[in-house]
Amino acid sequence: MDVLAGRKTGGYIEGSISISGYPKNQETFARVSGYCEQNDIHSPHVTVYESLVYSAWLRLPKEQMFVEEVMDLVELNPLKNSLVGLPGVDGLSTEQRKRLTIAVELVANPSIIFMDEPTSGLDARAAAIVMRTVRNTVDTGRTVVCTIHQPSIDIFEAFDELFLMKRGGQVIYAGPLGCHSHKLVEYFEAVPGVPKIQEGYNPATWMLEISSTAVEAQLDVDFAEIYANSELYRKNEELIKDLSTPVPGTKDLHFPTTYSQDFFTQCKACFWKQYHSYWRNPQYNGIRFFMTFFVGIIFGVIFWDKGNKIHKQQDLMNLLGAMYSAVLFLGATNTSAVQSVVAIERTVFYRERAAGMYSPLPYAFAQVAIEAIYVSIQTLVYSILLYTMIGFQMEVGRFFMFYYFILMCFMYFTLYGMMLVALTPNHQFAAIIMSFFLSFWNLFSGFLIPRTEIPIWWRWYYWASPVAWTIYGLVTSQVGDRSDMVETTGEIPIAVKDFLEKSLGFDYSFLPAVVAAHIGWVLLFLIVFAYGIKFLNFQRR
């Protein structure tokens, strides 16, 4: 079924697929079909209604949206304002999530819907509710194709036709079930040696039992060969031949654009969903702001008024240590925390991209844009706490530069975490890669060993460490132009700016380049994240 729906990502595919006699075009087919995966994948922090509005917004013109009608059809109105939640943790039950999965596809008004084991993992009652939803869908004139394992009698007889294969992919029955499965039963009972079905017995169970490999060996028959020589097979071949030829006067289905909505609308819709997702995620954002406030207070108290004390060499090193701790501690926390959020949303992205809802770049834009808003607020709180408690000069220009460097630092740390998730199969692997490079960023940040003391053949990595640029910018923008004299070990007092340039390699005239470099780091990680999302697909089907 994955092959028919165009969702297969691995293995080899042979043969051809045609739609109304024309070769199948996956981009076009995705616009007129729906696919309900076995694992119900949805953004956890939006409501049921918002999930449907979002799907309809991206897949249909506004005047054609019929969200309310679909909610009635799949009986989701009582859950309209409920959060979807994470499977097995909170939010909707398995059966409710299954109905939401069906509804998300139905709002796109597809002609055909594929469902991968819609009753998997459900008890009898829940399975009956889901199958009632499926039957309601069929009654609206849509075709539903399901894979299903060991269904009950009621569920099995809700289907109109059956396509049965034995191990190895060979077809042993393809045709109508009939009332109470009588056509299926008549077909197999006509095979010599096959036992009659007992009254009240489940036809699905009986069908699997009498077509097993053991029964084939016992009866010395090959059900695939029997089917290939049957009248049913010949009728199916004739039907396939007829449907493989386009009807005179018809044209292949074509859409003028790849996606239903334009680029701006895709960006707007993706940002709308991310906005609601982040607003309702206190586990992530609540802890983020608590950590920001707590760490800001701690560092502010530890480095209280160090910004005004630059009379000795140790005072400057203390200030350097304050900047090093301030950016690396909370920056690394941002990198780590964002990975699980992006990893969850990436699984949703795979489903939505396969459905042809949007291109990858609007998704990347929305994810980065919403993070930028929260990081900006986080940085403002952190900057006010640190700047006032450390005691830097109260000048608007200096505060703006301090805020700018902290903001860009937190942004590239956050984007670094997002980028690693986009480039790796899972966020556990991303965390390993993150730790490896953060260790080098830490080592070559210019605090543990100043750039002037790093061996020349390793000095290039100092410039390849974003943290080094941030510490350079923070220290230089605050005290890099000061002419106050500072006492140094074993030497006569020299000006602060001269000491910074001589001992640490911090040149105030280089500050514009440092400002530009921060923009470069942010853009680098942003571009790699966007194109990683676009070109890499770690989903295996």
From TrEMBL:
Keywords: Membrane, Transmembrane, Transmembrane helix, Transport. Residues 13-120 form the ABC transporter domain. It is found in: Membrane. Residues 265-478 form the ABC-2 type transporter transmembrane domain. The keyword Membrane applies. It is a multi-pass membrane protein. The keyword Transport applies. Residues 149-217 form the ABC transporter family G domain. GO terms for molecular function: ABC-type transporter activity; ATP binding; ATP hydrolysis activity. Coiled coil: none annotated. Pfam families: ABC2_membrane (PF01061), ABC2_membrane_7 (PF19055), ABC_tran (PF00005). GO terms for cellular component: plasma membrane. The chain crosses the membrane at residues 286-304, 316-344, 364-390, 402-423, 429-448, 460-479, 510-533. InterPro entries: ABC2_TM, ABC_transporter-like_ATP-bd, ABCG_dom, P-loop_NTPase. This is ABC transporter domain-containing protein. It comes from Gossypium laxum.
